Amino acid sequence: MTLRFNKLHPHFAAEAGPVDLRRVHDEEALEGIRTAMDEHAVLVFRDQAFSGGEQLDFAARLDGELHRKTGFSVLQKNRFGDEALSDVSNVEADGQVVEADSRRRLYSLGNRLWHTDASFQDPRGRYSMLAALVVPPVPADTEFADMRTAYDTLPEETKAGLEGLRVHHSIAHSRMTLGFEFSEEERDRLKGAIHPLVLTNPRTGRRALYLASHASRILDRPVPEGRLVLRELTEHATRPELVYRHSWRDGDFVIWDNRATMHRACPYEDTVHRREMRRVTTLDTGDPARVAQPA
Question: What would the CATH number be for the domain defined by 5-284?
Fold first, then answer.
């Protein structure tokens, strides 16, 4: 099977031609998707009809090990029975749309910050795959920022100054900036992880800034200076010309590379309009072509 991809943005993001990903099993087609991810970093597939199990199976075929230590799993049990299938919805466990003061909603507001999935874990997240089951009748878009072009367009002197810097990422940090309160036990379970500020894709050699609202500090710099550097780099990376805005349709399935992008959810009337989405994130553990092979 040969897939075609049409660009959606001058620098990154592409839409795939018609395909039912549930039926994509052959390694040649899977490797074609990985190669397209290396080039475009964000891929849009239309009219997908995954069940939860099918979405988990496809993610494992494409990219191997699944991320199950999600931040939200510390607060509440997953209603689907598998922590790898993240509930990116505005409904409670009973199926009702969230109330304005719901703890679930207040936690989820952090998704409106520029972030990178599972950067607070080691190993970090690699691909995220988000399926849209129910899309509101109002715009509820997601924005993506191209962190590769962001790195490429930095002055050479700035690039040199970033070499070797390490950053602590914590999902508790990003939520606490919005006033979300964690119990002591929850904070103990959300210690975070340390990653380089600049990542290199081992398949292509292309470099990218690795930022997120989860980034609490640069270990190798004084805290005020480090936070200023992170803020300035984020502003540089999220300039309008580096951002693709995706308008969701029912059945959309979007895959993005967390090592090459940041993203954020755009606000909408989330206490009024139902929005149901399911996300699976894989872990950055070795070459996906090898990791995804059955034992």
Answer: 3.60.130.10
